[in-house]
Every structure is written in C-alpha cells, then in structure tokens.
Amino acid sequence: xxxxxxxxxxxxxxxxxxxxxxxxxxxxxxxxxxxxxxxxxxxxxxxxxxxxxxxxxxxxxxxxxxxxxxxxxxxxxxxxxxxxxxxxxxxxxxxxxxxxxxxxxxxxxxxxxxxxxxxxxxxxxxxxxxxxxxxxxxxxxxxxxxxxxxxxxxxxxxxxxxxxxxxxxxxxxxxxxxxxxxxxxxxxxxxxxxxxxxxxxxxxxxxxxxxxxxxxxxxxxxxxxxxxxxxxxxxxxxxxxxxxxxxxxxxxxxxxxxxxxxxxxxxxxxxxxxxxxxxxxxxxxxxxxxxxxxxxxxxxxxxxxxxxxxxxxxxxxxxxxxxxxxxxxxxxxxxxxxxxxx
Length: 342
Known about the structure:
Blueprint: E1 7-10, H1 19-23, E2 25-28, H2 43-53, H3 61-75, E3 81-86, E4 91-103, E5 113-124, H4 130-135, E6 142-144, H5 149-155, H6 177-203, H7 206-219, E7 223-226, E8 237-240, E9 250-256, E10 261-262, H8 264-271, E11 278-284, E12 287-288, H9 290-298, E13 302-305, H10 307-316, H11 323-328
Parallel strand pairs: 1-3, 9-11, 10-12, 11-13
Antiparallel strand pairs: 1-6, 2-5, 3-4, 4-5, 7-8, 8-9
C-alpha cells in the first residue's frame, strides 16, 4: 500500500543564500515566542502566544502566522515532500522531510525553527509550467501545494507512487488582506521574469542571445560588438565606452543562454583571458554558485549578471530596445502594490 504524504511549499528570505541546501534543512521565524514545541498542541494556544508576543501585529495576521507555525511544528510528517523556491538563485529545490525538528535560539538567519530535509534535486524555474510556478508564488511562508503537486513530484520520481493528500487535522488558514495583496504582487513580478527568460530560451539561439546582450549593453551607453562564431577564445562580446574601442577599459563578455548554475571554474576561464586594463562580464539566464559569487566579491574587474539581474536590465532599458526585440519579448508597464514585508 502506498504511503500518503503531503507536498508542502515553503518560502525563506533571499538572505539565507545556500545555507539551507548545504546543511539540509528548511526554517521559519517567530523566534521571540521561544521553542514552540513547549506550547500546548492546539491552534488556539499558538494564536494566544502570537498575540502576546507580537501585540502590534494586525488581527487578521494572527491566525495566519499562528497557523503557519502550528503546521510547521505539528502537521509536517517525515516523508512529506517540500518545494522550496530559492530567492538567491531562482532555483526550485525539492526534498523530503526527515522528521528532525529543532529550535536554534541564536540562529544567524533569524529563522530559529528548523526541520531536517533530504534534498532530492534542484531545478531551474524554466523547467516548470507557469501554473506550477504561480502556485508556489504564494506570499505565505508555508502552504500546501495541491493543484500542481504531480508536476513537482514527477521531477523526483514521486508522481504516481507517493500521492499528495490533504491533512485531516485542520484546514489551511486563508491569507489576510495584506498577504493576499503581496502574493499578487510577487506573482506579477515572478511571472514577468519567468516569461522573459522562457522567451529568450525558446526563441533565440546561443548566437542570437549574444547579439541581444550586445544590444542591451548599447542601450546602456556602451559600444558593443559580437565576436566571430568560432575562435573567440571564450569571449562572445567586446564592449567599450569610446566609439573606436581603443580606450580602456575594454569589457570582455561571456554569454550563456542557459538556466543552470555556473561555478568558479567557468569564471576562472573568463578571468584567464583578460589582459591589462580589461574587465570581465559573465551574463547568464541562470544563476551562480556561492564560489562564483565569492570570486566576484574579491575581484574588482569581474562582474556577474544572473537571470534575475539581466531581466532587470531589460526592464530598465525597455524603451530603448529595438522593435524586433520588443516583439520577441512583448511587455507593458503596470503598477502593483509595494507593501512592506512583515
């Protein structure tokens, strides 16, 4: 008989970086309450603790936050699956809970409630349908993935074997108004980023992407030219400020039309072809490993542009982009609520 499990979605802040993946856990906050395992195992007791600890919190947020903490402590079971969309690298991480639950009072991330996870795989967002991405775009910290559960489980061999099921202990608390508004804003931003990256991946060749990167640099005020398709020594675009390209600095650009994660060896390859007065720029639709980011922090003549940053450059310079590229990535400006995250 197949085991019945839940598929949970969980969000952590971008500041946590790679730590949860490297150390095999997920975590949530509300540390001022103390170890929640010591509270009576009822939702009302968790609501009471939330009110007493955070008297300034809006009344509508109390049941939502208390319900989140209660589910994290009492409803997640060993063997349940978790989907964690990482903000730091735009990757989708899928794992299974181990059953380990700890309270780390002095947690440097300020997420003291930890649950152990065995991470099964990591995927770029472009591997999933927009419907699936929208479902995990909730502003809630912890939620059940229902509509698109099979799509996520299929990525790790769980689809059709371990079926997600709803918990029978209690229903999910609805989002309060501010959280619901923030969910819409987050989904609008993330959907736009996903749309742009999928269009560039699906409608451009590698060489066309290099031409597009050169064009974006020109929109930013640089002169840029794409190198020959072969024999470029790892340099795809050369950019400079002066019209003729004689004056330093000269920027050598490597372009990768991929949504994968790039590491330090690729960065070192680019650094190895830089001469005196030359700078290195690595542009990708994917992300960079912690080691690659550390190289950027320690080397002034190196800049790394990941997919999220590149999408931002497209948005900032969209009015200057040539019509043929605007037709490829059609966008219109909208305004969305920008409430503070609490």
